[in-house]
Amino acid sequence: MDHRFESVNEVREKLESVDYLADDAIAGIVHLSDRLEKPILIEGPAGTGKTQLAKSVAEMTGAKLIRLQCYEGLDEAKALYEWNYKKQLLRIQADRSGDSDWSELEDDIFSEEFLLTRPLLEAIRAEEPVVLLIDEVDRVEIETEALLLEILSEYQVSIPELGTVTAKQIPLVFLTSNNTRELSEALKRRCLYLHLDYPDMDREKQIVMTRVPNITDHLADQVARVVRSIRSLELKKHPSVSETIDWARTLVLLGIDKIDAQTATDTVNILLKYRTDIDKAVKDMNANADSYTGS
Amino acid sequence: MTTDSNSNMANGTVISDSAEAVGDVTNSPLLDLLTGFIVELRNAGLPVSLTENLDAMEAVQHIPLEDRVALKYALAATLVKNHSHWKAFEIVFDVYFSLRGEEYALDSELLDGPLEDDDEDEQSPGGEGKGEQGQGGSNSGMTPEELAEMLYNALANGDASMMRSMARESVRRYAGMEPGRPVGGTYYLYRTLRNLDLDGVLEKLMQQEQDESGETSDFEQRLQRDEYKDRIEALKKEIEAEIRRRLVADRGVEAMAKTLRKPLPEDVDFMHASREEMANLRKAIYPLTRKLAVRLARKRRRGRKGPLDFRHTIRTSLSYGGVPAEPKFRNPRPKKPEIMVIADISGSVAAFARFTLHLVYALSSQFTQVRSFVFIDGLDEVTEYFEQTDDITEAIHRVNSEADVVWVDGHSDYGHALEVFWNAYGKDVGPKTSVLILGDARNNYHAPNSWIIKDIKERARNVFWLNPEPKSYWDTGDSIIGEYSQYCDGIFEVRNLRQLESFADNLV
Asked: Do residues A26 and A159 share a domain?
């Protein structure tokens, strides 16, 4: 079995080449996932780049990205496979005049020709390298999670009429979760776990620099600092990385090269989406620095 | 090749897992270390399964072992599946692997004796602890002023490696650590920090910043201050880690791991949670209330089917050549659950009440129909305080200042509070209502009025009582939980998140 990556550093460099700045944890786990052939479960607050990681890994390995968006009520027919019953009916009808016997017909209508593949089966059957992204897995009910278990641990799908379909190549699998509920132990056990938090200031600055064209070093630095200050407040929803990027873009478009309290107050609604949060942040930003001196 | 080593590892681990002697596996020192590490994780409460254990063993084969950071993340990825356990993991990791790694090479010279063979309980006479008196070492020639100066520069420039060696030096100099002394790490931390006067350093940094860059706006100063504060925090962490490393060297890995063991967030007792633990609890409570919400709503979704779905039946009949052979039914529309939360916020459960209010707040953001009541000896509805604002602190402030919960003397009187509830809101309790009562049932020897619970029970769908007291205290002193419990559908000891979760789990 040959591996996709030689070392953790290779992962990091490759990710950087597709504009995704990975820290030690991210690069380490992608490397490990390739070696251990295990899926990665990514949890963390919204907008920290969970889905983007899967996309970037697909891009850097030149693999096809197959995405399964989870939602409440997702079932086998939408996730794994479904029999194309209309086509089966046609086949039966077409055969009415014919003389083939029943068992022959049965074998025929339950063959691959009549199988509609859904994302999971598609990822397993793919000939070319794929990255499978199972997005927002916390949205499905805990019972539906069981659907995923076979594919996550054995990379195979059992179809009663056909037998077991085993993966031709082991795909890289990413699962994301916003942690709205605890995932089952069974699922967690089969995965490597990564908690993706807001990046530290330096990394956030780097992210802003790569994602926002024409931004000056000074402005990116200020953006990262302001965001860090805002995140230290107790808010309902902290600004995500994507909101930071949006904010930086806006500032560049407005031709601002230095943030002061006024510009920050005027544009903070890009970072924060709740009235109470905005009020709090504005109050904090305009607070006189001397009032922090304490004594 | 991979599979080969796989099975090899597997054998080794299974043996060690059952706590028997490890056979002659090639890299057994590492295996021993990892086994001990995983045992300690389990002792700390992390649910490490056998598969995860095996994964970790395999994972370490794929990374360069001298890379401490990579090792840490490889172990974390395979062993820690819940972010709230991260901190516990980090501590155990630091204890087990703190004395390894090239970046600490300098230290192993400095801490000669006990480091090399620290596994035995060796009393090192000339240990590092007496450094205060100026023991030979690389930096010991400095005066305290020089040290302060270097520390100041390190902070001003944000030089991480300089900060690390400063942290080391200050611990060596100020902590006054003595081998074998049964004092916790916090004591040493306090001693070190007292000597460094970091608040003073912060002011000095700010002053200098102002002098240098001329007039800066308040806003910029503010950002700069945040930056310095951040660096000082980092320095404190370094100091803490350094103290921990020295303690490990002195006392041995296992003893230290045991001392540092703290309850996981889900095991923290509500009544005795520190401020920091409380913050963690708050984060953990949202997924849990969602679960609670789902459980309370579940029963209505399953089971009996709804009325015939005509369109769907016709549609399916097409596959039977137009014969409606398979009737289809609508799923029953899930009804909105109604929840009434009645919470004791008196002094005896003050710490619990803080948590309770967060729970109520989280519940009311999940459900539309949550009505909340608080009481001491009087009772008041506080639903709107939670609904009108997104800000939990404001809501709690309003509950504490505006809610009319004191009737006579501000000592809990369950009987009277229930009576007020029954008279004013009893008519709103319907067959769809779940009633949650949160409190310790310590009634100060007033009349219990338990008939009210009985009446509520007759009208409501169910009545649950969550008691923050340990079960062994129930019905002692003025607790009359037994009196009430006979009329409740269930009565639960809920002192930590784990118990709350199991309450939610059993709600079917």
From this structure: yes
Q: Give the count of domains, chain A.
A: 3
How many domains is chain B built from? 4
- B24's enclosing H/E stretch is none
Q: Are the Cβ atoms of B391 and A194 closer than 8 angstroms?
A: no
pLDDT band at B506 (very low <50, low <70, confident <90, very high): confident
Q: Tell me whether residues A289 and B389 touch, CB distance under 8 A.
A: no
Chain A CB contacts of B219 under 8 Å are 259-261, 264, 285-286, 289
In the three-class reduction of DSSP (H, G, I as helix; E, B as strand; rest coil), residue B251 is classed as helix
Least CB-CB distance to B287: which of A180, A222, A277?
A180
Worst-scoring range by mean pLDDT, A64-73, B29-38, B115-124, B279-288?
B115-124
Q: Which residues of B touch A283 (CB under 8 A)?
A: none
The answer for residues whose C-beta is within 8 angstroms of residue A42's C-beta and 6 or more apart is A50, A53, A174, A175, A176, A177, A194, A195, A196
CB atoms within 10 A of CB B141: 9
Strands A130-135, A172-177: pairing is parallel
The residue behind tokens 């062994």 is B472
Contacts of A40 in chain B (CB under 8 A): 77
- Segments forming the whole domain that contains residue B318: 309-333
B179 in a structural domain: yes
Question: Taken in order A111, A117, A121, A127, is the CA torsion positive or negative?
Answer: positive
User: What's this model's pTM, rounded to 2 decimal places?
Assistant: 0.75
**Six-digit token pair at A151?**
């594919």
Contact flag B219-A193 (C-beta cutoff 8 Å): no
